[in-house]
Structures are given as C-alpha cells and as structure tokens.
Design brief:
The complex is a heterodimer of chains A (253) and B (564).
Chain A (H helix, E strand, L loop, with lengths): L5 E4 L5 H16 L4 E4 L9 E5 L5 H4 L5 E4 L9 E6 L17 H6 L12 E5 L12 H8 L5 E3 L26 E6 L4 H7 L4 E3 L23 H7 L3 E3 H6 L3 H4 L1
Parallel strand pairs in A: 1-2, 1-3, 3-4, 6-7, 6-8, 8-9
Antiparallel strand pairs in A: 4-5, 5-10
Chain B lengths: L13 E8 L3 H4 L1 H11 L4 E9 L5 H13 L4 E6 L8 H10 L1 H5 L4 E4 L3 E3 L15 E6 L4 H9 L13 E9 L4 H10 L8 H13 L3 E3 L6 E2 L3 H6 L3 E3 L11 E4 L4 E4 L17 E8 L6 H13 L4 E8 L5 H9 L4 E6 L14 H20 L7 E6 L3 E2 L4 H10 L7 E6 L2 E2 L11 E2 L7 E2 L27 H4 L17 E4 L6 E5 H4 L10 E2 L5 E2 L2 H13 L2 E5 L6 E2 L1
Parallel strand pairs in B: 1-2, 1-4, 2-3, 6-8, 9-10, 13-14, 13-16, 14-15, 18-26, 19-27
Antiparallel strand pairs in B: 4-7, 5-10, 6-7, 11-12, 16-23, 17-27, 18-23, 20-21, 22-26, 24-25
Helix pairs in contact in B: 4-7, 4-8, 6-8, 7-8
The chains are: A alpha/beta (253), B alpha/beta (564).
Chain lengths: 253, 564
C-alpha cells in the first residue's frame, strides 16, 4: 500500500488557508503523490507536513522536517507563495537549482529599480516576530539598532503604536520610502521589496531573503549587482497556477 | 459483556473513522453521516475520512472535494486511489483497508463506522470500555450461513455450550491497534472462503484469533435498520444494508416519541438550506455626480433597514460637482460605516473610450480602497454579505430576496462566491424600434433584454463577447445583425450561469471572502497607448474564484436590475 507522502496542515477558520488547501491538494494529486489534509496541530504519520503559514503549526516545526508555504517575498501575494523546507526564509532550503539562468526571473517581469544614491533617512522596519535564534524579542533587537536610525516604519500587522519603553517609541513613524538612505531590518521580507525598489538595505539576520545583496550593519551601505540574487530569488516562490499543477512538489517531495 | 462507564475522568477525544469513495457519496451520504455524528456525540469528536480517490478524475475536482470536506468539519482526510492488494476481490480489499486505518491517520485508537451508518445516540465514552482489548466489536444480527460454514471449516467455530453462534459486524468496531497484518495473514492462510461476504469471514477469523483481546460490545451500540424495534427505541447507531440504503436519507428518528418518520425529502440535505436573504449587509459603492440617482438607492437601503436588516455603509465619493457629497453625508448621519469624500482630481482621458487604462486603473484602486475600509471593521453578523453597487443602477427593494431565492435553487449554493444579476440596459424606446418593451420599474424607459456590462463579462470559457452581450435572449444584439454572433451564446433557459467574470453594477459577495486582502481589483494594459485593458472586475473575479475556489454566477432570472 502506498504510504501518505505529504500531509497538508490547514486551519480552515483562516480564510486564505481554507481556500489554499484545495490548490495544494490538486497539485499533489496532479503528480500522483498520496496525501492527507488535516487540521491537526501535530505531526501525522510519516508524511512530510506541508504547513500553511507560520502561525498555527509551531509544534510541528519544532519536531522535524516540514515544508512551509508562506507569504511571498516579491510580487502579488494573491498570485505567489514562497515554499521552503525546514526553516524560515533563507535558513530553509528552497531547493533552488544549482545551475540557473535568468529565464524564470525574466518570465515574471518584476520591476527592479536602480540603486538610489541619495537620501538622508535611515528607516528601521518593524516586524512582528524575530524568526531568529539570535534575538528573543523584536523589542530587544530594536534596542540594538534604533540609535542608528532616524525613522520607524511599523509592520502593517503591528498592534497599535509601540509602548513608551520600546526603543522605537522615540523615532518618528513613517510609511514613506521618500528620501530613504538606508532601510534597516532584521530579516523581514520588506528587505526584498526595498532592494527591488533600489533602496540600499541592511539586514541583520542571516535568515533574511535579501542577505546577499544587503549590508549587515546600520552604518554601511551596500549596492551590489543583484542579477545572480534575482535569479536565485525566482526559485524561492511559486505561482498559484504552478502549485495547482504540482510543479513545485517535484522538487520537494 | 462490557458496560459503559458512566463516570470517570474526562474522555480523550473520540476519533471516528470511515471510508468513502470520491464519488456522489461525498455529497449524498457523508453529510448525513457527519451531521448525525456531530449532533449525537458529546465531548470532543474528530471525524477522519479515508477518501478513495478516482485516478481518472481531474485534480481540480479532487481539490474542490477536499475543500468541501474541510468546510464540513472533517478533521483529517487521507486521499489516495484504491490500491487493490487483492485483485478481483474489491469488496474484500475494502475490509482489508479498515484493518489498517489507525496508521493511515496516525492514531492510537479509533472507532470505525461504515459511512452509511446513522449515529443516533451518544457514542462518547466507548474509548473507555475494556482498555486492555485490541478490538471492541458488535454482533451482526444477520444470519450469514456461508460465513458460519467457513468458520466451522477452518476451525473457528464456537465451542459447544457457548450459546448461539454470533458473528462480528465489520461495519462498526473499535480498534486499539491496526489489525492489517492479522487480516492479511488470514487471507493468505485461508484462501478458500465464500464469495458472498468474504470480508466478514476474515474479520471473524481475526476477531476469534484475538481471544480475550477482542471484546464484544453491548448490542445497543449498533443495530441494523431492519431490526425496527431496536432502531426506534435504543440503538446508538443504525446501519443499513441492501435496499434499505435507499430509504436511509428520508428517515428521521424521534426517540422520545419512539418512532421513525419517513419524510418526502431527504432529511439532511447535501448542505443546509440556503437562507432567503443575508443576515447582515455591507453596502460598498462609489459615487461621483450622482445627486439625482442617490434618492433611489437611499429608498432601497431604508426599506431594508425597516425590514430589520443590519447594514454597514461604505461610500467613496470623489470630485463631485453637484450635491452628491452633501447627500451622502446627510444619509450617513447615525448610520454605521464610513463616508470618504475625496478630491482626487482624476484625469479621465476623454475620447479614448471607457476601457482606457487611465479610467479603469483609478476605478480599480478606488474599489479596492473602499472595500478595504469595509473589511477593516467587524461584520455585523457572521453571515454578512457585501453588496457591491455602482451608481445609476436601479433595482427593486426586494432584490436581495430575489437573488437569494435564485441562489437557493442552485444545487450547491454555498459554492457561489459572487452573485450577479442579469442587469439590463435602459433605452429610449425610439432608439430600439420593434424590440422595445416597457421597463416595469421605470416608466417611460424601455428594455430589450440586453445585458449591459459586456466589458466586465467573460463567459465560462474566458471568452469576451464585448461589445455584444453573450446571451441568446438579447433582442438588441440579435436584431439587425448581418452575421451570426461568432461565439456560442448562453441559452435563455439557464437560470444560473457560471462565468469567469461578471459584475453588472450590483453584486453580492460573502463578506468573509472579501476579508482576504488579495481579493481586490486591478487591471492590466495592452499596448503602448493603453487603450485596451482588462476590466477590473475580470481580475477581481479571477482572484475570487481561484483563491477561494468559489463560483461567479449571473442569475439570469433576476433581470429586474437596470442601468441607464
């Protein structure tokens, strides 16, 4: 009897997960992979857990291999999703081909703007969790860099203004990238957006997807050639149509 | 005989397992099974399904089936085609499948039930019975002579003096470990058994081989339907065999009345009956220079409010040169929602057509903005629907009832993510001589069954019929045509038309779907001059369909909506 090779873990009360699970199921079925779909928060049998999102299935992440489907780094979140094995962001394995040309990147025609060479503001970008073994809390990390930054850009999902004791509380809030000299983030996917927009960026955790094309201290600027990184980036996320057709699963299962 | 402990520590979750082929049983049988389990069993109950998939079915069909099962509360669904280890003995292979179900679901123990079993009373607590046993079983009241003969022949007959011969019913048992190896061993060791119900023979061989590790449950746990007294009075579950299965959907149990009713319609429909109107409404609309139109819309909204419908309003007004902003502000006094009046100074490029990028993209952004505002707050009810309304759309005040009545006639109403109407173009009668009919809602205006929003319309095969409409009933598009329409037309006798995209100026979408921020509007251009773009509703509908797996439909019979 063929064993179940993949287990889709879904929380049906979260709308996007309920809607996305059938796509994943169709893709697995399209390539003949026996699979299960479950709302269990625990590992089920020996099949590789496919986790929809980072919020519901931490216990499974802690216990062994897993495949994480998460918000994409670039492009329309309604059309793309990132897929990574055994980790968050660059810490995981995206199964990027060792030899790759630019065809996958160019196929999707995402704009890449020239590096900016002017600007006065250093914008600290907020995030909701650290996703990093180096920092227990986001606030603690803010404390290490806020002194080098001129503005704070809250994460869109952050619950209201930071408390007065938070290191970012003294920084003017901004949502604009105008006059930005440097964007500073720990490992948020905002770094991919800023790099694509030509904004020099500092990432301070090696899990950041834009690690290769950013500086790693708030007082340095890096504007390297992004071509190789873009070609790599194109293999870290997949379109909904590709998922429905089963294309990514051949690389991960 | 085991008894059910009535007191003791809280039971672990009761895991109920069943097997079903991925065919019409998913819609016809499993909803009754699931509904009865959920209604009858106390405590935490988790339903697990081994779905035997059809390798010939399209993957998208299987994906949609998985989505439906999740929606119906199944905890785990294992999807795999039938892998026949016993070629030529398909029914037996299903019995073998049951013996290995715990491993399929990663469970330590669980209750297997045939899917055509009615759970009528609480089965919670069965997991505490005889904890040392590997198998809890119930007696099969059927006299299966071939099985008895097989058991006697192979040395599994009961010793003399143990009472009458009793067989295990393989449609109801509680497993504490998988018995697939024992089952396979029995098949291999005793290949010569009856062809009538060989699975029953092998299950009974396994049960009897387990000795004290197999414990018989009280008969009340499971009876056949044709044991009418038991089914009426005390059986906790009732299984159906043979022709009785045809009766099962129509049966309703009245235990206090000690009766069973046979209803003319299935007691548990495939899905709950559709509501006749939304529980609450969020109205989302864009307005610009609509002072003369707004009294019509307000009169409808006020009629709905008087009927007790909770409504939230989200209006975006921009750059009006008449009293639109003032009228909206006055209307919003004391009402829930938000009015945004913006001076956007949008540069419409006149003379380049209504489909130009410079017109469509701002519209898309405005629609997305105001829907985003609506979704930022809590809905007025779990079942709130959002009404997407364009200006200059005229409609009767019972439009919601009409749309929901049409929706209820669909065999899968909950699969519809967007309800649109057959919105008709209003004409001056003189402009369409010979085909004009008076508009019932607006005296002095004429109609010709012309579906108005051809730009946003894409048929089910993603074909754009613009500037003609795609409906065979339209007299205007057919009148005076010198050549037949080059694309297949939608017949007039199809009340609910599945489409790739449509809008029509008035549409209903479950608010829960719109809370996904990906389901918004945008457009895509073509060519340097940007004179051809996709209607923003095409992108919206595509996202709605593909992200949520729901359908977009035109209610062809709801043709009482009009646009000037």
């Amino acid at each position: 009897m063929a064993a179940t090779r993949a287990v889709i873990h879904v929380e049906p009360r979260i709308a996007w997960q309920a809607a996305f699970a059938p796509l994943v199921a169709a893709g697995l079925r399209a390539i003949g992979v026996p699979y299960a779909v479950t709302r269990s928060r625990e590992r089920l049998g020996s099949g590789l857990p496919i986790l929809l999102g980072t919020s519901c299935f931490r216990a499974i992440e802690a216990e062994g291999p897993f495949l994480l489907l998460d918000r994409c780094s670039f492009g329309d979140p309604g059309a793309w999703v990132s897929i990574v094995l055994d980790g968050h962001g660059r810490r995981g394995d995206h199964r990027v081909p060792e030899t790759r040309d630019g065809s996958r990147w160019e196929r999707y025609g995402v704009d890449v703007l020239p590096w900016r060479t002017a600007g006065t503001r250093t914008i600290l970008c907020g995030q909701t969790e650290t996703y990093s073994p180096h920092h227990d809390t986001v606030a603690a990390w803010y404390g290490t860099v806020a002194g080098d930054c001129s503005h704070f850009r809250p994460h869109p999902a952050a619950p209201g203004p930071p408390p007065a004791a938070c290191p970012t509380a003294r920084l003017p809030r901004t949502e604009s990238w105008d006059d930005c000299r440097l964007a500073v983030t720990l490992n948020s996917s905002v770094a991919v957006a800023t790099v694509l927009a030509g904004i020099p960026t500092a990432t301070l955790d090696e899990g950041a997807m834009a690690w290769e094309v950013t500086s790693h201290t708030p007082d340095t600027i890096a504007t390297p050639d992004r071509t190789e990184w873009l070609h790599w980036l194109a293999w870290t996320q997949w379109t909904h149509d590709e998922i429905r057709e089963g294309l990514p699963w051949r690389r991960f299962l | 005989m085991a008894t059910l402990p009535l007191t003791g520590p809280a039971a672990a979750p009761l895991d109920i397992l069943t097997i079903c082929k991925a065919d019409h049983w998913v819609d016809d049988v499993l909803p009754r099974f699931a509904t009865l389990v959920d209604a009858a069993c106390s405590g935490t109950v988790r339903r697990h399904l081994r779905l035997v998939t059809d390798p010939a079915a399209p993957p998208e069909t299987e994906g949609r089936m998985v989505g439906t099962l999740l929606e119906r509360g199944w905890h785990t669904v294992v999807c795999r085609p039938f892998d026949d280890p016993l070629p030529g003995r398909r029914l037996l292979a299903f019995d073998a499948l049951r013996a290995g179900l715990l491993g399929e679901f990663g469970l330590r123990e669980g209750l297997y039930l045939d899917p055509d079993t009615d759970v009528v009373a609480d089965l919670q607590g069965i997991q505490r019975i005889a904890p040392e046993a590997d198998l809890l079983w119930v007696a099969n009241p059927l006299v299966l002579a071939p099985v008895h003969a097989d058991l006697e022949r192979h040395g599994f007959g009961l010793p003399a003096g143990t009472g009458g011969p009793v067989l295990m019913e393989p449609g109801f048992f509680y497993l504490r470990r998988d018995l697939d190896r024992e089952f396979a061993a029995a098949c291999a060791r005793f290949p010569e058994v009856n062809d009538f119900v060989p699975g029953s023979t092998y299950w009974n061989i396994v049960m009897r081989s387990l000795g004290a590790k197999a414990v018989r449950l009280p008969d009340e746990f499971n009876r056949t339907f044709w044991d009418i007294p038991a089914a009426v009075t005390g059986a906790r579950s009732v299984h159906f065999t043979g022709q009785w299965k045809h009766l099962q959907p129509f049966l309703e149990y009245d235990r206090p009345g000690r009766s069973i009713a046979i209803r003319p319609e299935p007691v548990i429909r495939r899905r709950p009956p559709a509501a006749r109107r939304p529980a609450a409404l969020a109205v989302v609309a864009l307005f610009r220079d609509n002072a003369s139109y707004l009294p019509h819309a307000f009169s409808r909204f006020e009629a709905w409010e008087r009927a007790g419908l909770p409504i939230r309003y989200f209006f975006l007004e921009n750059d009006s040169t008449d009293d639109t902003a003032g009228l909206l502000a006055s209307f919003m006094q004391g009402r829930r929602g938000r009015l945004e009046s913006r001076r956007l100074a949008i540069r419409y490029r006149h003379g380049t057509g209504s489909e130009h990028h410079d017109r469509i993209m701002p519209l898309a952004r405005m629609r997305s903005f105001i829907v985003g505002e609506a979704m930022a707050g809590a809905p007025a009810a779990d079942d709130e629907w959002t009404l997407l309304l364009d200006s200059d759309i005229f409609f009767p005040d019972d439009i919601l009832e009409r749309m929901f009545a049409a929706r209820a006639r669909d065999p899968r109403p909950e699969s519809i993510g967007m309800l649109t109407c057959y919105t008709q173009q209003l004409f001056d009668a003189a402009r369409i001589p010979g085909i004009a009919a008076p508009c019932p809602l607006l005296p002095g205006r004429a109609i010709a069954d012309h579906y108005v929003d051809t730009f946003a319309f894409q048929d089910a095969d993603h074909r754009h019929h613009h500037p003609s409409c795609a409906f065979a009933r339209c007299r205007r598009c057919r009148a005076g045509a010198t050549a037949p329409h080059p694309l297949p037309l939608i017949p007039a006798d199809r009340p609910i038309v599945d489409v790739a995209a449509a809008f029509g100026g008035l549409a209903l979408v479950p608010t829960a779907l719109l809370r996904d921020p990906r389901i918004r509007w945008t457009t895509y251009g073509c060519g340097h001059d940007q004179t051809q773009v996709l209607a923003e509703h095409v992108v919206f509908c595509d996202r709605l369909r593909t992200i949520t797996g729901t359908r977009v439909v035109v209610l062809q019979d709801v043709d009482c909506v009009y646009r000037n």
